[in-house]
Amino acid sequence: MSSVWRKKIAENLALVHEQAGPEFVVMVTGNENDARYWRTHTSQVRGNLFRADERVHVTSVAEGSPRGNFLGTLKAWDDARRAPDTPGSIPDISFMSMVFGKGKRLSPFCQALGNRKAAFPTPMKAEKLSQYLCTGDLSCLYSNNWVQHLRQGGFQGVLVKWGDEAILPGLDWPAIRNKFQDMDLIRFVSQTEPTEVLAREKDWFVINRNTGLIERQLSRQPLSSLQSQLGNFGTRQYGTAVNLGSIAVSYTFLEAAREILAKDMDNPAFAADWDPFIMMALLSPDESAWQINVLAEEKAGRAGIRDAEKRYPGFYAAVSSLRSAVKRKTGRPFKIGFLDFGDVFWVDLGLQITLRQTLAALTADSEIGFATREFFGVPHARDAANNIIVRSPISERSRIRNSVILDSSITGPDVQIEGGVVVGGMHRNLLMPEGGAAVFCAVSDMRFTGENTIAFRSVAPELSLAKGERHTSIFLSESPETFISNESVVDYSGDTYSKPIFGNRLSFEEAGSLAEQVDAIELEDRWKRSREKFSP
After folding, report:
1. Are 273 and 69 in contact (CB under 8 A)?
2. Domain locations in the chain?
3. Quick one: CA dihedral 196, 197, 202, 204, positive or negative?
4. pTM of the model
5. What angle in degrees, to the nearest 10, is found between the helix axes of 251-260 and 68-82?
6. Are 146 and 238 in contact (CB under 8 A)?
7. What span, in angstroms and rounded, lies between the C-alpha atoms of 372 and 391?
8. What does the radius of gyration of the chain's CA atoms come to, in whole angstroms?
9. CA atoms within 13 A on the CB side of 138
């Protein structure tokens, strides 16, 4: 798969230089502070993400009250179309990035970013700028070939992408003219057989290989009950596919929704997600088909549909009306197509363990290692000690092996790094004998005393971290405040989130709430000023 993934990486980067990325981009956030941040940030880096000539119109809208990603998509598009600076002529494909998420499971790093999970900086440096691209940026950048393929297939609409993930397909997509021309929605899938883990963790589609359409969606559930429901689709004509998230929505669908669901979109008490129940409703041509889904959920003892009705009363009737309106506008049956990604390369920096695994992969000589370095724009050339060292002055007395050092200054006499990753750091002495990662830190003397440790934006004269520990500095004022967690914490709910742990002065919830109240740009500037002050 590595060769296909690397080919897709190159394609996405080439599309930027060919001016083939989207020209109209909507960033969707939860509040006005976040909207200002993403509007400013994306406008700065758009030449690295979409089109090198920067001929990209970026607008940013705030959701306000949580609406779920279905009503949120419709409301965001309505707000974007009404914005005074929105161009009158919309291009064939527009791009919408949903940059939500406080990132509770990335605590305390997300709090240092003002509860903006998608703003987590990555090891990839912007080609035209001195800054590093963040998770939300790479989600955009590596969707350019999605946009291009939809465009080549004749689709006209909006690619709605979840902004905290980046996915590369493991398949080459042949350009088939008009393949998507008459699709109302397109879902992104990976054709595979269900396993116990996938059945429990993912939603599923039944796809018709002959028509290229999705015929049914099934919610995540135990493997035995999933297989029972799939029993009616046992021929070669049908296949099962895991839902990869994100969705392409036709302009016709969106404009019909602005007419049919205007009151629902504006009702702050209503909320609904695309998956699984809105999709189930859209795939149910009549009430009897819908009742099959309702009965299946009730028979299995699941309350999902009842809970969805509480969040959006009468949603099936509303969705049915929308579906009928789209059919009237197009004069044909309602269609939901799919695009198969095959064996995907999925970069998820939103969990502490997957963050550590992704950073560690930068040092590996494996298919995943090569693909990860290409993904982040890190070269493969190594020195005699098997290191990749880029734009980094290092002390001649250092003992560094099997490591990746990017844009870092490590100048002291006591430097030992084995299998570690250091990005954007300023250090004098740095001891990482069992690996780990120090990213964007300014610590004169730092020591990792165990494996799997990560320091992020840590600013301090000295710092010692144990196995699996996480450390960051949060700038609720001009002075940095230390926050600690550990990779062993996997559940950030209840007291773990709402009460101080690991000797922190505040809980993660309190720290995030206070950080949200600081202007997003000011929060960044405080870190930068403090970093320069403590630079060795």
Report:
1. yes
2. 1-170+346-379, 172-245+267-342, 381-534
3. negative
4. 0.94
5. 90
6. no
7. 19
8. 24
9. 27
Decide if 484 contacts 504 (C-beta within 8 A).
yes
pLDDT tens for the chain, 536 residues long, are 689 999 999 999 999 999 999 999 999 999 999 999 999 999 999 999 999 999 999 999 999 889 999 999 999 999 999 988 888 889 999 999 999 888 999 999 999 999 999 999 999 999 878 899 999 999 999 999 999 999 999 999 999 999 888 999 999 998 888 899 999 999 999 998 888 878 888 889 999 999 999 999 988 888 887 888 777 666 678 888 999 989 999 999 999 999 999 999 999 999 999 999 999 999 999 999 999 889 888 887 888 899 999 999 999 999 999 999 999 999 999 999 999 999 999 998 888 999 999 999 999 999 999 999 999 999 999 999 999 999 999 998 999 999 999 999 999 999 999 999 999 999 999 999 999 999 999 999 999 999 999 999 999 999 999 999 999 999 999 999 999 999 999 889 899 999 999 999 999 999 999 999 999 999 999 999 999 886 66
Q: How is residue 373 written in tokens?
A: 């370095």
